[in-house]
Design a protein that fits this description.
two-stranded antiparallel ribbon, alpha+beta, five-stranded antiparallel beta sheet, single chain, globular, disordered N terminus
Amino acid sequence: MTGIFIALAVLGSYVWSQPEAFFSFNASDIVMPATITGTIPVVLPMARNVPLSLDVPAPLIKASASAAYDEDSDFRLISDNPDGVRSIASITKLMTALVFLDHNPGWDTSYTISRNDYREGGKIHVYPGDTASVRDIFRTALIASDNVAIAALVSATGMSEADFVAAMNAKARLLNLKHSGFFDPTGLDARNISTAHDIARLANEAFSKPDIIDALTRSEFSFTTKEGSAKHVVTTDQLLKSDVPGGVTIVAGKTGYLPKAGYCFVGQFEKNGKKITTVVLGADTEEGRFNETKKLVDWAFKNYRWE
């Protein structure tokens, strides 16, 4: 046992004096040979492959909080008040969608909107008495940020709203969203809170789900209820219908607005196979949240080089 301590002390002294040599090793170079009995393998943490900054001057972002992250490494590219806790409005719906996917009764299941599903606020596309497939309701909820459709999804799972919200908070803990909390699934409750950092993590999880991407990449959507009522849904994400600077492609995005939250947007963008996630919270205007997002995206891809 004494020999082990001596070996580790020698190794530590060498690392201190020659760090560049140590970090040039492969993991296999530093694990003690199996032929030596009574040794403890040394396991090194994997280094994050973070992008290299080119020192381009950072933009001024007019919002209460903002941030951009490298999707692969979770490296923070730029931020302003990323850990400030704020009301998040309909960005809440990303968490609702994740929890719904855990309890989906089946995409082809028919559901009739009830009076209990009705919510004031925002543009309404489905009304009590309308019957549609769960898939059509899901797309309506995310594309148009429709609060009635969100409430209907919760009801379609067979869960009470209280149990569903409890599942949302459990999912937040599972995703290590340390400063996030939910009181309702629509985002109409201003007590739904998070931070720019937590929202980026939530968005990365949500945008990894094909069914969520399928909805959030549609600029519009039409369907007909079982009763024969034609519905046409238009996205709240203006960036799906406009050019993002520098040949960047939008992967997905979600809007939010309440008087207490301001205008919010979280989006994921891709260029040359590299993805970044941006968050803007508390912008002053609807147009502003998209303009500030464009600034973040343009700067991030100009300022950073990925090896």
